[in-house]
Design brief:
Layout: H1 12-32, H2 41-50, H3 56-84, E1 92-104, E2 109-118, E3 121-122, E4 126-131, E5 140-147, E6 149-150, H4 160-168, E7 170-176, E8 180-184, H5 188-203, H6 206-217, H7 225-234, H8 244-257, H9 266-279, H10 284-302, H11 308-322, H12 330-355, H13 360-384, E9 386-388, H14 389-398, H15 402-418, H16 423-426, H17 428-443, E10 449-451, H18 457-469, H19 477-499, E11 506-512, E12 515-521, E13 526-531, H20 536-545, E14 552-556, H21 561-567, E15 574-577, E16 590-593, E17 596-599, E18 602-608, E19 611-616, E20 619-624, E21 635-637, E22 646-649, E23 652-654
Helix pairs in contact: 1-3, 1-11, 2-18, 5-6, 5-9, 5-15, 6-17, 8-9, 8-10, 8-15, 9-10, 10-11, 11-12, 12-13, 13-18, 15-17, 18-19
Length: 655
C-alpha cells in the first residue's frame, strides 16, 4: 500500500465539526442511553487514517482539535440539558403563549407554544398543547388554565417523541378544554405563515391545502393522516420538510433572477433564503442549506474556490455551537447525512457514468442521488424501522419536478395572500399540480419496503464502509477490495447476530409515553406482550424493527378491550388474554382465554391480569408493565435505542 495514497487531509473545520458532534453524541449516550464500543468505531477509523503520515505535529493538531471541540460540544449540551430539565410550577396555573406551529387533527389541535409565562412569570422553552379546538392559528397569542407537565428525559433513549421534544426545546406538555385569544404575535414571518395557512385552507380542498402548506412551511401536521402515512412509508416525507432542496431552489432562482447584478446578486439571494428560514422557524435542514449557500455565494463574491466539505463542516459547526440539541433531531442527521453522502461518493459515481457517456447533467444528478441513498440507508432504517425501496425510484423521478412545483406554489400562494380577491385565480394552477401530486402518492401506497430487522452494530460498520470506500480516502485498489470484503463480512455477521435467535430466548423491551411492550423471540417463535395503553402505530413500529409477523400477542391489562382491539389488527396467529371478555362473532382471530399457555418453547402463566410469569431455558421471571420498583435493583440492562431496557429485582422484570 502506498503511504501517500492513504493520507486524509487535515481540514480544521471538518475535524472541529466532527469533534463537536462527537462530544454531544457522547454526552447523550452517557446521559440518556447505554454507551457501546461500536460508538467509537467511526471516530477511531477517522483517527487511524487522519494521523498518517505519523508526525508529532500532525498527531497533536488532530488530537487536540478533536478533544477541544468535543469538550465544547459536551459542555454545550450539558448546559442545554440543565436548562431543559427546569421544573414548571406545580398544579394548575394561568399560561400565556404564542402559537408557532399548529397541527389540525380534525376536532382537536396540537399546538406548539413559545414565549411562555405561567401566572405572569416567564418560562424558558416551549410547550406542546393538546387543545380540543380547531380555532388556533400560527401567531395567535392565547391564554388558558392548565397544568404544565415536564417532558420525561428518562424515556429519552426509548421514546422518539421525547427525543424530538428535546431537540425542539419543547420542555412541557399540557391539555385544556377552553382558551382565550388575546393578541397576534408581532413576528412578521409568523404572521405570514398564518396568512399562508388561511389562504390555502380557505381556497383549496383540505387534502391539497394540507399538502401545499407542508411543502411551503415544513409543517405536515395538517396533512391528511392517510396521505402523511403513505408519504412516510414511501420514503418521500422529506419533500414536506423544508430542506436543502427547498432552500437551494429558492437561492438559485433568486440568484438567476438578479443576474444583471453580477457578483452582488448574492445578497438578494441570501436575504431571500434567510427570510424563508425564518418563515419555517429555522429548522436544522433549512439553516444548514442557508449556511452552505451563503458560503458558496461568498466564495463566488470574493472569487475564491468553493470547497464542499469545508462548507458542510462550517454549517454543522455553526449550527451545533448555537443549538447543540439539534444533534438529536432526525432532520439534522438526515440533512447532513445526505450532504455527507454527496461529498463521499458523487465524484466516484460521476466518473463511472462518464465512462458510459452519460450526459453531464444526468450523470451529475444520478451521482448525487446515489451518494445520498447509500449514506442514508442506516439512518433511514434506524429512524423508521424500514427502508422504502420504491421510495428510491419515486424520489429519483420526483426530485427534478420539485423546482417547478415548489416555486410555482410559493409564487402563486404569495400573490393570493397579497391580492385576496384574485386568490381563486392564482391558486388554480397550484391546486391542479397538488392534485397530481396526491394522485402519485395514491399510486405509491403499496410501496415495497425492507423491514423486520435492525442493523445494530451494522449501522456503525456501514458508515465506516462509506468512509473507507469513498474517494476521499485514497486507498490503493487492492486495499479497497480487501476493505470492501471485510466490511461485507462484518456487516452481514452483525446483522445476523442482531436479528436471528439461534438458541435460548431473547427479550426486547420497549417503552415510551406511557406505553409498554415486550417482544419475546426464540428460534421457533416471536411473541409480543402489550399493555392496555399501547397504540397500533407503536406496535407496528416494534414489528417493523423486530421480526415483522408474530406467532402470538399476549395482553397484560386489567382492561384488555383496548389492547385486544389493537392486537386484532396485528399480523398474529393467536391472541392470549388472562381475563375473559366478549368477542364479537365475526372476529376472525384466534382469541384464547387461558391462565397458562406455551408458545415457541416458552411457558407463560398469568399471575394477575397485569403480571405474567415467563419460563424459558429453566429461568422464571415475572413481567410487570405496571411495576414501579426501579430502585435497589439487582440488574439494569439497556442500550441506546431502548430495545433492551428493564430492571431485574428478585427474579422479576420491571419495564
Amino acid at each position: 500500500m502506498d503511504r501517500k495514497q492513504t493520507d486524509l487531509n487535515f481540514r480544521p473545520l471538518l475535524f472541529c465539526a466532527v469533534g463537536l458532534a462527537f462530544g454531544i453524541f457522547l454526552y447523550g449516550k452517557i446521559a440518556f442511553g447505554g454507551l457501546l464500543p461500536s460508538d467509537f468505531l467511526f471516530l477511531g477509523l477517522l483517527l487511524l487514517f487522519s494521523l498518517r503520515p505519523f508526525s508529532l505535529r500532525r498527531i497533536l493538531a488532530v488530537v487536540l482539535t478533536l478533544a477541544l471541540s468535543a469538550g465544547v460540544g459536551a459542555l454545550g449540551i450539558f448546559l442545554y440539558d440543565k436548562n431543559f430539565r427546569t421544573e414548571p410550577p406545580e398544579g394548575d396555573c394561568m399560561i400565556t403563549g404564542t402559537a408557532i406551529s399548529v397541527s389540525d387533527k380534525g376536532g382537536y389541535s396540537l399546538v406548539v407554544l413559545s414565549d411562555l409565562s405561567a401566572d405572569g412569570e416567564k418560562l424558558g422553552g416551549k410547550c406542546r398543547l393538546y387543545l380540543r379546538s380547531e380555532d388556533v392559528l400560527p401567531a395567535d397569542e392565547i391564554v388558558f388554565f392548565a397544568e404544565l407537565k415536564p417532558v420525561n428525559c428518562e424515556e429519552f433513549s426509548s421514546d422518539g417523541r421525547a427525543s424530538s421534544f428535546f431537540s425542539q426545546n419543547i420542555r412541557y406538555t399540557a391539555s385544556c378544554e377552553a382558551f382565550r385569544k388575546v393578541d397576534l404575535s408581532s413576528n412578521p414571518f409568523l404572521r405570514f405563515n398564518r396568512l399562508l395557512f388561511q389562504t390555502l385552507f380557505h381556497h383549496m380542498d383540505r387534502d391539497t391545502a394540507g399538502v401545499g402548506y407542508a411543502l411551503l412551511t415544513g409543517n405536515s401536521g395538517s396533512m391528511d393522516e392517510g396521505i402523511a402515512t403513505i408519504a412516510r412509508r414511501g420514503g418521500f416525507a422529506h419533500l414536506f420538510a423544508v430542506s436543502g432542496l427547498h432552500i437551494g431552489i429558492l437561492f438559485s432562482a433568486v440568484y438567476l433572477l438578479f443576474r444583471p447584478l453580477k457578483r452582488y446578486r448574492f445578497f438578494p439571494a441570501a436575504a431571500a433564503a434567510l427570510c424563508y428560514c425564518a418563515l419555517c422557524n429555522f429548522t436544522a435542514s433549512s439553516v444548514r442549506a442557508f449556511l452552505m449557500c451563503a458560503v458558496l455565494g461568498l466564495r463566488k463574491f470574493f472569487g475564491t474556490k468553493y470547497d464542499y466539505l469545508d462548507a458542510l463542516s462550517f454549517a454543522a459547526l455553526i449550527l451545533l455551537l448555537f443549538s447543540p440539541q439539534q444533534w438529536f433531531s432526525w432532520g439534522f442527521k438526515l440533512s447532513f447525512g445526505a450532504c455527507a453522502g454527496i461529498g463521499l461518493f458523487s465524484g466516484s459515481f460521476s466518473r463511472f457514468f462518464a465512462k458510459w457517456k452519460f450526459p453531464k447533467a444526468v450523470r451529475g444528478y444520478l451521482s448525487m442521488f446515489l451518494g445520498v441513498q447509500i449514506f442514508l440507508f442506516p439512518l433511514q432504517l434506524e429512524m423508521s424501522g424500514y427502508f422504502p425501496v420504491f421510495g428510491i425510484i419515486f424520489n429519483l423521478l420526483a426530485a427534478p419536478l420539485m423546482p417547478a412545483l415548489f416555486l410555482g406554489l410559493l409564487i402563486f400562494t404569495s400573490l393570493a395572500v397579497f391580492i385576496p380577491p384574485a386568490a381563486p385565480f392564482f391558486l388554480a394552477l397550484p391546486d391542479g399540480m397538488l392534485a397530481l401530486f396526491l394522485f402519485l402518492f395514491a399510486s405509491a401506497g403499496s410501496s415495497f419496503v425492507l423491514k423486520g430487522f435492525s442493523l445494530g452494530v451494522g449501522a456503525a460498520v456501514w458508515l465506516c464502509g462509506c468512509l473507507l470506500l469513498s474517494e476521499r480516502l485514497r486507498l490503493s485498489v487492492r486495499a479497497r477490495a480487501f476493505a470492501a470484503a471485510a466490511l461485507v463480512l462484518l456487516f452481514s455477521s452483525s446483522v445476523v447476530f442482531e436479528n436471528v435467535v439461534f438458541s435460548g430466548c431473547r427479550v426486547d423491551f420497549f417503552s415510551g409515553d406511557g406505553e409498554f411492550a415486550a417482544l419475546v423471540s426464540t428460534k421457533d417463535a416471536r411473541i409480543l406482550l402489550i399493555d392496555g395503553e399501547i397504540s397500533l402505530d407503536r406496535c407496528e413500529d416494534i414489528l417493523n424493527r423486530r421480526g415483522g409477523e408474530t406467532d402470538a400477542v399476549v395482553v397484560l391489562s386489567d382492561d384488555p378491550l383496548s389492547a385486544l382491539n389493537t392486537a386484532l389488527f396485528l399480523p398474529q396467529k393467536t391472541i392470549y388474554l388472562g381475563k375473559e371478555v366478549a368477542v364479537w362473532d365475526s372476529c376472525s382471530a384466534d382469541v384464547e382465554f387461558a391462565e397458562t399457555f406455551s408458545c415457541g418453547g416458552v411457558a407463560f402463566r398469568y399471575v394477575s391480569e397485569e403480571k405474567l410469569l415467563m419460563i424459558a431455558e429453566g429461568i422464571a421471571v415475572e413481567v410487570d408493565f405496571g411495576g414501579k420498583e426501579d430502585l435497589g435493583v439487582d440488574l439494569f440492562l439497556g442500550d441506546a435505542r431502548g430495545d433492551l431496557k428493564y430492571f431485574l429485582k428478585d427474579g422479576k422484570i420491571y419495564a
